[in-house]
Amino acid sequence: MTPLSWPQELTLVVAKILLFFTLILTLFAVMTYVERRVLAFMQFRLGPNRTGPFGLLQPVADGIKLFFKEEFVPPGADRWLFVLAPALSVVTAFLAIAVLSFGGSVTLPAWGLLPGWLQGREVALQIADLEIGVLYIFAVTSLGVYGIVMAGWSANNKYTLIGGLRSSAQMFSYELALGLSWVPLIMLAGSFRIPDIVRQQEGPLGLLHWNAVVQFPAFVVYLIASTAEVNRTPFDLPEAETELVAGFHTEYSSMKFALIQMAEYVNMITVAALGASLFLGGWTSPLALLPDSPAWFVLKLLAILFLFIWLRGTLPRFRYDQLMHFGWKVLVPIAALWILVTGGALLLMGGGAVRP
Amino acid sequence: MIDAILFYVFAALALGSALGVVAQRNPLYSAFSLIVTLCSLSAIYGLLGSPFIAVLQIVVYAGAIMVLFLFVLMLLGARREEAPARQGRALPGVALALVALLALQVASVILGAAPAAGTPGFEATTRKVAEVLFSVRFLYAFEATSILILAALVGAVALAKRQL
Prior knowledge:
heterodimer, A: two-stranded antiparallel sheet, 2 strands, globular, B: mainly alpha, Four Helix Bundle (Hemerythrin (Met), subunit A), 6 helices, 0% strand
């Protein structure tokens, strides 16, 4: 394969960014509908079913409604930060997508409308394969707190302030467990790169090689910590409506509210995609007989997203002290111990998989 | 070419936001400006070919320490700082000393030996940082630091416990 010149490289990257951006936005719109429908069925209701066939046009209707609602900035609010906060939330949410691997690589067809230099070329379904991979996601998600803190403080309202404080404390605490749950996988793969971690889970026994099986405690810690990290039930204390009206986004309306919602869903998709790659073997097939394909990745991603909705329909909300106890005194020690166990096992089996 | 443009963009951003940290009257604005400074510095580390250092900069400073700063500011109820009525008499002296220090630093950079063109700098990839950090030379200091941090942690908990 001839190497690409830099304008070609740039075109390819921009095309990938546009593609993944639209895909994620579409998934966001679909998720708002699916979540409401699935929750409704779990609670023996019907959910939105009036707009279009089966209510499928509901996201469009929601979008139009939010777009034409009154844009309101409460008096006494800090205008600058109040407007900046939703934008910051969305930007940090979308930044994390850059290193996500959407399922290995595909070989483009050698025909059709594609320019000649792209035909028959193998293209990785990842925007940037950074050497630091998952660490980048860790860094970007840790910046996501600021959008919420800013929103909470700038609205000049007690409920939003308490919501903002709660969420920063919560995200801060569970980030630790989240990061620690990745460490054993990084030790096994000997690399921070997401594709390397996925390849490490390949094997003749299919799904028995997945980190969800081999690294079961880390998987459980990851699922719980990531649910808390994206502020979803049972960890949705920042917006506990019985206590805080709507938490940090109480004062937001119209498109600013829509942006905050978008950031939440995009974070959820990121976390699910990461779980599918790191723990469920990404694009590798669950049965050794079937071929590996990006379709597996999409299936795993949707399965984790469904799990999030399922949790929301099932579990009651934590109390705040329970949340902190659970994060610091249960999850973090389990994750740390498991790192020790993995390290010991690697030593016994001869040094682990350090890549040259 | 692109590297140079990006460098100047982030350098300008870092300087501008650093000025903002000092010039803002509202402590919360200062804190947010500092976050922008830290993030631009991280981008510059990335441009220098040290992605690991870049990420550490964000995780440790922008992600962890600044959250605590904001926490304190928000809990204490940050008020707009009013300009003190009487400027300290030492102020011109301090300003002069700082300007002199800056001039000295700029001069040392300009007059100092510039690295010959084409000499590769130390690219702090994860592997290289790990190799240096866990080499015989630094391993002892590294482990001693971690014990020091642990001791500080225990101390902080002990102090806070008395208050509770």
